[in-house]
Give the backbone structure.
Amino acid sequence: MENVNKKLTPLKFLHDVQELPWGNVEYKLADLGFVDSMACEGWLKGNTLSDIMQTYLERVVGETSFDWYGTQFPVMVKRLSIKGRSSLHVNPDDEVAEQRYDSFGRTSLWYVEEAGPKAQIFLGFKKSVTADQFYRACQNGSVESMLHTVTPHPGEMYLLSPGLVHAAQDVTLIEVAESSELWFRLFDWERKDRELHLEEAFDLIDLRKASSGIRREGTVVTPQFTLQPLPLKEALKSTRDQDDTFLLYICIKGGAVVQADGTNYKMKPGELVLVPAECNEFFLLPEAADTFLLEIRMDPRPDNDLVSEEVEE
């Protein structure tokens, strides 16, 4: 590392692509150990995200995030290109993950980037089911008939709270999630060669009818992260004297520039820029009329670590 007292500037990272039976996952930003994003621009070029966190701590993420997550970057961003059908998963909450696995839980959000002709997202259950009914359906292959299914469209967002069973097909998603890959595979459709975790995760599953709050519009606020859709029609100046958080910008359409201290950091569709908490003044400049970004940050976090959802009876 260079001079640790040197002011931090915006960072861009190399992407890590992994092939899976249903398509591929592109890690755009992750501090997970087995995936550790590497900076590719700026004076920290060539350093991994975990190394940057170990050295600069709250200067990167802000004190609120550091108090909760320590030296691990608190969120990750992935692009899921699902050509077939992903397996049916469930995520644990923070409390269970910590007690059982010494890990963070996994609240996540899907932003629909593209939807193919057979696009579907499976989210929870059409109606409340019993544990025995769900177990038997997983064993005999009839689980799809139980699942609440939506036809996704580009620009929609879906919140995946802990306990919500979920899967997707023929769709491209931007996933923003708590910095954890702790999840459990409950059912894998016609595939028979991958490990299932049905028994291990059985008591984590929310068996109630799917909540009406799964699909989200506008700014989405959870204890783990805040996501704001940002149509960028004109230049914006950000002055963050009181803003104790990192900012992530991912370009969905058009193109944009993050300008800080006289340096431009360009974003094409699919690219991401991390603005450290220490970088308290910068500009966002659109490079096309249809420029659209997602902004991700961590707001002051309440004591309650779980996302609360209203449940339909």
User: Anything to note?
Assistant: The chain has six helices and 20 strands.
